[in-house]
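Exercise 7b. Backbone tokens:
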């Protein structure tokens, strides 16, 4: 059963510059309930990520409410330890000469590598090695980041998020740059994280990436919620055809959502 609500958004209007992305948007996300968020380009997925990770606020209006972990006002530094994030842009922030170990350790200081002038406790070092071992990449600790495969790099980004033992893990298009083998391995990792009690928010273009363990799906279109609810009901042939404006047929082999042209 879902637990406490960690993200509550009521009647929100949200702007990015001069562009209004959301109007009167309401949404709630709960601990213990992993969710997939889908939608075409321009639907508002990136803006929603910014809202639920504290990087963006809605327009101040009497009817609007936006809270994270029950708080309307929060420190971003505190949120970074409660909400882990794996974002595509993070790959560009890491120098190719950094070691894999430094890539992960530096997350404790909110940095991206360059740990030579930093000091870390034994507990932080132990936590880093434990997470690397859990993700199957501890043998990469002394390797240069730039010499790693795309799948190995993505696991290090995941390790950076997990060292804080966050309550929620947000994954933005986590397999978009991976080949088939690496994407399959990362999908298995997501399944294991959910099975061991982690709450995931998976933002994706592709229904086939959604692990069977994610029970809920939210579809966005034109800055509004197109559908929200149990995954098999929301990701139906009719709903996805309407969302993407093309005829689609959905099947569910082994609990995975396979979509093909109708």
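Sequence design result:
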């Amino acid at each position: 059963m879902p637990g406490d609500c960690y993200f509550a958004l009521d009647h929100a209007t949200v702007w990015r510059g001069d562009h209004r992305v959301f109007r009167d948007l309401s949404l709630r996300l709960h601990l213990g309930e992993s969710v997939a968020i889908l939608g075409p380009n321009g639907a508002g997925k990136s803006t929603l990520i910014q809202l639920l990770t504290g990087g963006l606020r809605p327009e101040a209006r009497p009817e609007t409410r936006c809270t994270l972990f029950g708080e309307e006002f929060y420190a971003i530094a505190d949120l970074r330890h409660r909400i882990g994030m794996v974002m595509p842009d993070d790959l560009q922030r890491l120098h190719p000469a950094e070691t894999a170990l430094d890539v992960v350790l530096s997350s404790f200081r909110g940095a991206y590598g360059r740990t030579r002038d930093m000091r870390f406790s034994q507990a932080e070092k132990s936590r880093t090695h434990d997470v690397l071992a859990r993700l199957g990449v501890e043998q990469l600790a002394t390797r240069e980041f730039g010499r790693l495969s795309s799948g190995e790099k993505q696991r290090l980004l995941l390790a950076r998020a997990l060292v804080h033992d966050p309550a929620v893990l947000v994954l933005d298009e986590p397999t978009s740059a991976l080949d088939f083998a690496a994407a399959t391995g990362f999908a298995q990792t997501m399944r294991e994280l959910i099975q061991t009690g982690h709450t995931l928010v998976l933002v994706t273009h592709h229904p086939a990436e959604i692990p069977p363990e994610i029970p809920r799906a939210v579809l966005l279109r034109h800055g509004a919620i197109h559908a929200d609810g149990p995954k098999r009901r929301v990701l139906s042939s009719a709903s996805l055809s309407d969302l993407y404006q093309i005829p689609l047929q959905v099947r569910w082999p082994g609990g995975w959502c396979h979509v093909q042209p109708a």
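Instructor comment: DSSP finds eight helices and eleven strands in the chain. Helices lie at 45-52, 76-82, 100-105, 122-134, 150-162, 180-195, 231-234, 237-244.
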